[in-house]
Amino acid sequence: MSIKLPALRARLTSTTAKVQQGLTRNDPVVAGGDPTGAHLRPAKPPRLTTWKHHAVAGYALIFSTFGVMGAWAAVARLDRAVVSPGTIAVENSRKVVQHFEGGMVREVLVKEGQTVHEGDLVLRLDPIQANASVDLFRSQLDATLVQEARLLAERDSQDNLELPPEILARRTEPGVARVIADQTAQLKERRGSLVGQIELLESRVRQLKNEISGLGVEKAATEQQVGFINQELVGLRQLREKNLIPMNRLLSMERERTRLEGIIGRSVADTAKAENGINETGLQITQLRQKLQEEIAGQLLEARQRSAELREKFAVAQDVLRRLEVRAPRSGVVQSLKVYTIGQVVRSGEPLMEIVPDDDKLVVHVQFAPNDLETVHAGMPAEIKFPSFHSRRIPTILGNLETVSRDRLIDETTRQPYFLGIVQISKLQIPEMMQGRLVAGMPAEVIVTTGERTALSYVVSPFFEALGHSFNEH
C-alpha cells in the first residue's frame, strides 16, 4: 500500500469532476439552456466497474452451472449395462471324433479344413484283429448252436438234427459243414451206445423170463411126481401094516417125496429171484434213460447259456469291426486333425479330429464376473461386438441372453471364477458383410443392458455403499 490517503482522495475528486463535466456536455437540455431549470437537478453517480462485480458474476455462473448439472443428473436416465468377454460357439458345440477301442490306422480319408457330410467315411483302422475276433466267436457260436440241435434230437429220440435257420443258411460253408458232420456222428454214436446198453439189459430180461418159464415146467413136473408118490405111499402103508413089505421101502419112498418137495421149493424161490431180476433190469433201463435225459437237460442248459453269451460277444465283435470305419457324426468342417500317418497307433478314446458344424445356430459363450450376477439374468437383451473386425461400418449385432449357469465355473487358463452365459444370435441380425465370416472360437464383447439409473446415482451410490460398509465394521 504505497499510495498515500490524501493523494487517493485528490485523484478521486478529480475523476468525479471530469465525469460531471462530460455528462453536462453530452446532455442536450443543459447545452441548449433549459428554462425549466432541469439542469439544476443533481447528477447520477457514475457506475463503478470494480472487482466486486466480476466476483458476483463469476459466482453466479458457477452456481448456475452446478445447479443445471445437478438438476440434469437428478432427472436424466442413463442405461446400465454389463460388459463381458465372450467367444463365438455353435449351438450344439463341435463334435470330437474318437474311437472307443483304438487300433492301427489303415487309411486317412480327410484333410484339415475339409467339409464333410454326416455319415461320410473319414478314417479306417486295420481290421485284422477285429476280423479274427469275429471269426472266433462265430465259429464258437456255430458249434454251440449245432450242439444244441443235437441235444434236442437226443432228448426227443430223433435220428436227424433240426438245425436253426442261421445255421441252415450257411450249412455249405466248410466250417459249418464240419461242425454239422461232427455233431451228427456224435448223435449216432450216443444213440448206438444207448441202444446197445438197453438191448443188453433187455436180453437179460428175456433170459430171466426163460428161466422162470423153465422153473415153472420143472415145478409142475415135480409136483406131478409128488402126487404119484403120495398115491404110491398110500398102498405101501397098507402093505406095511400087513407086513407084506419091508420098512425101508416105505422110508425110501418117503425120502423121495421129501426130495421132490424140496425141488418144488427151490423152483418157487428161483422163480421169485428171476422175477426180481427182471424188475431190477427194467429199473436199470428206466434209470439209464432217465440219467441220459438229465445229462441231456444239463448239457442243453449249458449250451443255451453259452450260446447266449457267444451271441453277445459276437455282436460286440461285429460292432467293433463295423466301427473300424470311422464316420462323420454330422456335417461340418474338419479341424484339429491329429491322424496323418498310415500305421499310426491310436489309443482308446484318443481324439482323432474335430468337426465344427456349419449349419448350427451361432451363440456366444459369455463369462460374467460373479459380481454381475446381481443384475444379469436370462431373457435380457444383449449387444454383441466383434473386436476381430476393425471396420467402423460393421454395426452392433443384437442378441438375447438365453441362459446363465447355476453354479460358478473356473477358467482353466486364468483360474478366475465366472458364470457362463449363452447369448443367442439371430441370423437375421448378421450383416451381409459378416455372413460366413463368423466362426466358432472368434472373440466377442457382449454388452447386456441391465436397466436404467440416474447420473446422480452413479456419483452418490459408491459413497453411500462405502458409508454403509463403514457403519457395519466392528
Topology:
Elements: H1 5-26, H2 28-32, H3 51-75, E1 77-90, E2 95-98, E3 103-108, E4 115-116, E5 121-125, H4 128-155, H5 165-168, H6 174-241, H7 247-322, E6 325-327, E7 332-335, E8 345-346, E9 351-356, E10 362-368, E11 381-385, E12 397-404, E13 409-410, E14 417-425, E15 443-454, H8 455-472
Antiparallel strand pairs: 1-10, 1-15, 2-9, 3-5, 3-8, 4-7, 5-6, 7-9, 10-14, 11-12, 11-15, 12-14, 13-14
Helix pairs in contact: 4-6, 4-7, 6-7
Short descriptors:
474 residues, alpha+beta, Elongation Factor Tu (Ef-tu), domain 3, OB fold (Dihydrolipoamide Acetyltransferase, E2P), 4 domains, 6-stranded antiparallel barrel, 8 helices, 15 strands, 52% helix, rod-shaped, disordered N terminus
Provide a count of the helices.
Answer: 8
Gyration radius (Cα, Å) is 62 Å
Q: Provide the domain count.
A: 4
Helix content: 40-55%
- Give the topology string: H per helix, E per strand: HHHEEEEEHHHHEEEEEEEEEEH
The residue-averaged pLDDT reads 79
Report how far the terminal alpha carbons are from each other: 58 Å
Record the strand order, biggest sheet. Answer: 1-10-14-12-11-15
The helix-and-strand class reads alpha+beta
Number of separate strands: 15
Strand content: 15-25%
Largest beta-sheet details: 6 strands, antiparallel, barrel
Task: Tell me the overall shape.
Answer: rod-shaped
Unreliable segments (pLDDT under 50, ≥5 consecutive)?
1-5, 22-41
